[in-house]
Design brief:
The protein is globular, with a radius of gyration of 19 Å. The protein is mainly beta. The chain is built from 1 helix and 18 strands. Strand 17 and strand 18 form a beta hairpin.
Length: 259
């Protein structure tokens, strides 16, 4: 998903940028090209394919430590598209967000104002020593986020995800990031089983037979470098992700430009 982006750079020091965020309006805008849109260890086309290239772009408007982030994903091979709206707060190592995901950007889906196309999720992150990041996210509203009992009744599942990530600089040139993430309990909203063959010959992940209980979904290793050109930043990353729940492997590439 989109993290907090750049304050206006223009050669300012980190201290000057922090002072801007404390007292002034700021913004960030840009776009990425991604070899696959990965989220929590799942490719979001839910086909299990190694590659599904997409263009991801967004704009962030902030005042002090609060910000509004608008972000979109347009897949180039599959029909999956997405629009996210995030309200966030960030101070030192703490980041808190509430975001709405709209997955109805295709003709086959209901319109923007149909509640079945949205979900509401809250997250909290804390980073220790600029290296160790802990993340927790819980979905509070989603049309499919229910666990059904044998008697036909249902209860809200509150599908959740937690993640531990560690970043290690290498010779002040690259950042090596190691990630482990899991679903702490049955999560019908997003935690699907291995892909299955469809009637049309294609593959899709299995949401009919949900993995129960605790499931590790995201083991990732990423190498990152951001090139600061003064008025913009060019982030590059290469990565590998393995999802033990679906037994799928992904080699990933991402590049962008952000102002």
């Amino acid at each position: 998903m989109l993290c907090l982006l750049l304050a206006v750079a223009f050669g300012a020091t980190a201290q000057e940028q922090n002072e801007k965020k404390e007292s002034k309006f700021w913004f960030g805008v840009g776009a990425d090209f991604a070899s696959n849109y990965m989220w929590r260890g799942y490719d979001q086309s839910y086909t299990g394919n190694m590659a599904d290239p997409s263009i991801q772009y967004g704009v962030t408007l902030g005042y002090g430590r609060f910000y509004l982030d608008l972000w979109a994903n347009n897949s180039l091979m599959s029909t999956y598209n997405e629009f996210d709206m995030t309200i966030g707060y960030e101070h030192k190592g703490l980041k808190i967000t509430v975001y709405d995901v709209y997955c109805g950007l295709t003709k086959e889906m209901p319109g923007f104002f149909d509640k079945d196309t949205h979900n509401l999720t809250a997250t909290i992150d804390y980073t220790f020593f600029d290296r160790l990041r802990l993340h927790w996210g819980t979905t509070f509203i989603h049309s499919s986020d229910f666990i059904y009992k044998e008697d036909g009744t249902r209860r809200r599942a509150f599908s959740s995800y937690f993640e531990v990530a560690y970043t290690q600089p290498i010779l002040l040139i690259l950042d090596l990031e190691i990630i482990a993430g899991a679903s702490p309990w049955t999560g019908p909203f997003w935690c699907a089983g291995p892909r299955v063959l469809q009637a049309d010959g294609s593959y899709a992940l299995d949401f009919d037979n949900l993995p129960q209980g605790f499931n590790v979904t995201n083991l990732s290793l990423n190498v990152k470098r951001a090139f600061d050109l003064g008025i913009c930043e060019i982030p590059l990353s290469l990565g590998y992700t393995y999802n033990p729940t679906t037994n799928r492997h992904y080699a990933l590439f991402k590049a962008g430009v952000w102002f």
